[in-house]
Amino acid sequence: MKQKGKLSTAPYKGVRDFYPEDMAVQRYLFSIWRQTAERFGFEAYDASILEPSELYKSKGTVNEEIVSEQTYTFTDRGGREVTLRPEMTPTVARMIAGRRRELRFPVRWYSIPNLFRYERMQRGRLREHWQLNCDIFGVDDTSADVEIILLANEIFKNFGAENGVHYQIHISSRKLLEALYDTLQLPEDIRVAVTRLADRKHKMDADTFSQKLHEIAGNATENLSQFLNATTLKALPQPVINSDAYAELQTIIDTLEELRCAVTFDPSIIRGFDYYTGIVFEVFDLHPQNNRAMMGGGRYDNLTALFGGDPIAGVGFGFGDVTLRDFLESHNLLTAYDTAPTLAILPTATYLNLEAQKLAHAFRSADIAATVDLSGKKIRKKIAHASERLCTFALVFGEDEQREKTYTLKNLNEGSSISGTLEELIMYINNS
Ligand code: HAM
């Protein structure tokens, strides 16, 4: 029970504290993200978590649900309306547009921002999460779409996951849906309403969905349903099969297949953001406990036009840390991420702590990560603790060692020991 007058030690609702064991996992996730993105030639960028609120209200960036229900927005002391960024895509589009003359396109950028959404909390959904964003700007053909999905797949592979066993990539195309709207000659407001409803299809039962669709689209319902329920490209309505968008999607799927990256056509992938103009995709966890998308993205060719000038084509994805951690844990794919110092120096009594600090400093000067156990615990406890911390070596530091200046190094993994001077032990550790 909370005591009167005392502050709670719990973090703000929906956000996480990262105690060292959680931080170790987070660093592991980020390290694979960074390594893989850089292996594809992506460059890192970053920005502030604060953005002017108008960035998320402009026509073209809108995700109705996020803007009207989920943003953290406040007025600053100068009367400006400010929002904690709920996603990174408008920010990166702003940055790209701001340097459009200096940048050499195509540009491949990545970032790992923390994002804020006032969500109803549930498994896989928090109010602050980190999200790897990888985006390519300045390429308007399918080669960039293929690369971005290949990168997504490679990240999963680097976490030890297998496509089709642990996860599945689902793809569709907004252009394909637009091609259908064109053949049905649907007016713009109906298109927007149908797209928004289709995005929520999985949140209602089939009858409710059909009824709502009929209310919006009238006699276009049959064709729209055929599209949204298709399980293969070939099952789509005929006019769509003859469209350029169809050929484009087929090329992307075939090329990825050829590169051993399986993707499944799924017309129910809509994605809530209004800015998508081409392919849209999501990666699903196949573990029954985790029924959420871990990553989502697509092509957005008009977003930078918000900032003036000709639009610059973009394609990319966001990959969340919360769902990724659930995924790795559920599939037993989470490996320990070791950040322990190499050497633990263990003084036999606290009056030796200062001298032990000097010895640790000498090891660190030779580029060996070293820590001193400053507790007053018994030496046996200190050794056990160094071992639990996953240090490789322990050095017991007593009066004899201080006087003789020779030390015994115990290898905590193998149980073996070796004695020598500081210089000898530095050489030994560096060679082992
Ligand atoms: P998104 O689908 O909103 O896309 O988010 C991408 C991923 O971030 C989701 O699949 C999920 O794993 C994670 N995520 C989103 N919201 C939360 C939350 N409240 N708690 C935990 N995880 C969450 C975008 O944000 C697009 N801007 C991605 C993009 C980049 N498209 C093109 N480039």
Summarize the structure.
This protein is α+β, with helices and mostly antiparallel strands and 432 residues long.
How does this model look, in words?
The protein has 432 residues and is of the alpha+beta class. The protein has 2 domains: 20-330, Bira Bifunctional Protein, Domain 2 (BirA Bifunctional Protein, domain 2); 343-431, Anticodon-binding domain (Rossmann fold, 3-Layer(aba) Sandwich), CATH 3.40.50.800. 38% of the residues lie in helices and 19% in strands. The protein has 15 helices and 17 strands. Strand 16 (407-411) and strand 17 (417-420) form a beta hairpin. The radius of gyration is 28 Å and the shape is elongated. The protein starts with 19 loop residues before the first helix and ends with a helix. It binds histidyl-adenosine monophosphate (HAM). Histidyl-adenosine monophosphate (HAM) binds at residues 87, 89, 117, 119, 125-126, 129, 131, 133, 135, 293-298, 316-318, 320, 322-323.
Sum up the overall morphology in one term. elongated
Look at the helices and sheets and give the structural class. alpha+beta
Q: Number of helix segments?
A: 15
Strand percentage: 15-25%
Which topology of the largest domain does CATH recognise? BirA Bifunctional Protein, domain 2
Molecules bound to protein? histidyl-adenosine monophosphate
Unreliable parts: none
Helix content: 25-40%
Radius of gyration: 28 Å
The profile of the biggest β sheet is: 9 strands, mixed
